[in-house]
Amino acid sequence: MTRDETNGHDGRALAQDPAQGGAAPQKARGGTAPQKDRVVDALSSGDSAFRKYQTFFVGRPGLLAFLRYEFATSLAGGFPGAAGYALRKVLYPGLFGRVGRGVNFGRNVILRCPSRIHLGAGVAIDDNCTLDARGTTQEGGLSIGDGTLLARDVIAVVKQNHLHIGKGGSIGSQTTMSAVSGIRIGDHAIVAGQCYIGGGRYRTDPEAGPMVLQGLETRGEVVIGNDVWIGAGARILDGARIGDGAIIAAGAVVTGEVAPYEIHGGVPARRISSRKPNTDVTR
Q: From the DSSP assignment, how many helices (H) and strands (E) are in the chain?
């Protein structure tokens, strides 16, 4: 069996961007082989604590960028009530690469490298969310479209490549989006609570040493179309492609392609119906 790389939760699996010193990814069977970034090793390097903090959290060099990040997050991040809400409205937009009008931030939002994040107008980020763009060097490598809501405890992390969420959507509480080969979610998408999207997998050659040291492979970008509804607790794994208007049942595990307007469910997910009338169901 393969093990989902991003389900390890061991703090060691953030992917390293080749432009930041890692080797270029090599081709693997059925996909690509992204490089791993071992966070513990990076934090134990010879760089100063200040430089490590800037790399992992601020995302920009220079004392001014550091002071702005510290002032905004320390003063406003956990401040309660209306005063905290107002402070975040004033102080947080300056941390991002691009921010539209009327963006709202809840308490205790964790920001890593926010200068690489673009937020559209009217975006709402609820309490305890994480927006982590450390793994991309792209301007706007993590982007959220106009009017989209991230409910409480959502984790959006770019380990490599990109994570783009369209406009007018809703990402349910405790959902994790972990981009290794990239994630694209279309407009007006509904993702229910406790879903998992993205990731990769460890190699499992029994002759190549511990799996955690063998490196990763991925089946490619996750693409979710417009007007898609993903039920609670679903798993949308690397390489999955879900067409416009499709529905994924609660608890399903999607590893392949879902045609537009089809309804899929089960483990692994299979076609069970269609939103369009007079469409035969393949069983």
A: 4, 30
